[in-house]
TrEMBL record:
InterPro entries: HAD-like_sf, HAD-SF_hydro_IA, HAD-SF_hydro_IA_YjjG/PynA, HAD_2, HAD_sf, PGP-like_dom2, Pyrimidine_5'-ntase_YjjG. Pfam families: HAD_2. NCBIfam families: HAD-SF-IA-v1, YjjG_YfnB. This is Noncanonical pyrimidine nucleotidase, YjjG family. Gene3D superfamilies: HAD superfamily/HAD-like, Putative phosphatase, domain 2. One of its GO terms (molecular function) is 5'-nucleotidase activity.
């Protein structure tokens, strides 16, 4: 069946999370007098953040624990003494400021303009409800999308089948007429494939996949070859 609906992940797929996150930390560290080399902090924080997001996806930790623990563990690892109160303050300010930085991956607007003429576009994201729409509004991509499905609104996170089925139902789409596009092999690609939904992996870091049957691209504009 012909593709009619294209579902996108947001962070790390269209919205350049790492760049925007780095700019956010730069601001809030300056605002709070955190005397630490940002690159030293980020070198530890980035893999820890991915680890804690995996635990969060698997329902093993709460949103509150995710926000606190990823910071606490990083500050401990770089031997920076900081109070719990200040960690909590930074965690709040990080969420409050993150959407104020709006770098998108190269080709985002060109791709969305191209796809919008051919398909109905949607978002499925594990990001926090209170910030995802703000990211999209501030980066001027909100209007491209019909349905914006967040894990907070559904109550489960990708790769749980429930969020994909909810998204299809919400969009009045079928598995056969839809495709999922995202950066996470586990959450986006395998999650979609597990319910019979087609998927494309945004492999922007050009990592080697053990599954050669998964369709992948190394840039957004490469998607035009398939859609």
């Amino acid at each position: 069946m012909k593709i009619e609906h294209v579902f996108f992940d947001l962070d790390h797929t269209l919205w350049d999370f790492e760049k925007n996150s780095e700019l956010t930390f730069h601001k809030i560290f300056a605002d709070n007098g955190i005397a630490i080399t940002l690159q030293d902090f980020l070198e530890v924080y980035k893999p820890l953040n991915l680890e804690y997001w995996k635990l969060y996806r698997e329902e093993k930790i709460s949103k509150k624990a995710l926000r606190y623990e990823r910071l606490k563990k990083t500050f401990d690892a770089v031997n920076y003494t900081i109070s719990d109160d200040l960690i909590d303050k930074i965690a709040i300010e990080y969420i409050d400021n993150l959407a104020n930085f709006n770098h998108l991956f190269d080709g985002t607007f060109e791709l969305l303009d191209y796809l919008k003429e051919k398909y109905t576009l949607h978002i499925i994201t594990n990001g926090f409800e209170e910030i995802q729409s703000k990211k999209m509004m501030n980066s001027k991509i909100h209007h491209y999308f019909d349905k914006i499905i967040t894990s907070d609104s559904v109550g489960v996170k990708k790769p749980n089948p429930k969020i994909f089925n909810y998204a299809l139902e919400s969009a009045k789409a079928t598995k056969e007429s839809s495709i999922m596009i995202g950066d996470s092999l586990e959450a986006d690609v395998q999650g979609a494939l597990n319910i019979g939904l087609k998927a494309i992996h945004c492999n922007f870091n050009n990592t080697i996949s053990t599954n050669k049957n998964i369709l992948s691209v190394t840039s957004l504009l490469e998607l035009k070859q398939y859609l």
